[in-house]
Amino acid sequence: MEQQKVVDWQIGKSILQCSAYMFESKIAADVCFEVGLPDQPTVEILAHKYALISRSPVFETMFCGSLSENSSSHGQKIRVIDLEPEAFQEALR
Predict the structure, then answer these.
(1) Contact 55, 92 (CB under 8 A)
(2) pTM
(3) Quick check: 56 and 64 in contact, CB under 8 A?
(4) Which DSSP category does 81 fall into?
(5) Residue 26: left (phi > 0), alpha (psi -120 to 50), or beta?
(6) Between 3.40.50.720, 3.30.200.40, 2.60.120.620, 3.30.710.10, what CATH number should domain 28-92 receive?
(7) Do residues 38 and 57 touch, judged by C-beta distance below 8 A?
(8) 29 vs 51: CA distance, rounded Å
(9) Alpha-carbon gap, residue 60 to 68, rounded angstroms
(10) b vs e for 20-48, b when ≥16 Cβ sit within 10 Å of the residue's Cβ?
């Protein structure tokens, strides 16, 4: 079954509705997490740095503060090895 592109997902919608749509569709996702427990295969989960930074001091420090790496690391994946992918995805939601 082919997924139909939604054309008017911004028009007449709240910022919350637009953000939810972008989260679900991964539009402009700019960070990739590789998530999984040590004895299981990892899953790639895409997210938006803007949303993470706006809701978490840990992510703000990771991406903007003393823990941030230079901008050349833009394409790198962030490994999360102590969570199940479903739990991480729900935490992002």
Answers:
(1) no
(2) 0.79
(3) no
(4) -
(5) left
(6) 3.30.710.10
(7) no
(8) 10
(9) 9
(10) eebbeeeeeeebebebbeeeeebeebebb
At 32-80, the pLDDT tens digits run 999 999 999 999 999 999 999 999 999 999 999 876 765 444 567 999 9
Amino acid at site 90: E
Structure tokens at 32: 């990739």
What are 70's two structure tokens? Answer: 């230079």
Among the listed residues 38, 46, 37, 39, the one whose alpha carbon sits nearest the alpha carbon of residue 78: 46
Q: Are 80 and 33 in contact (CB under 8 A)?
A: yes
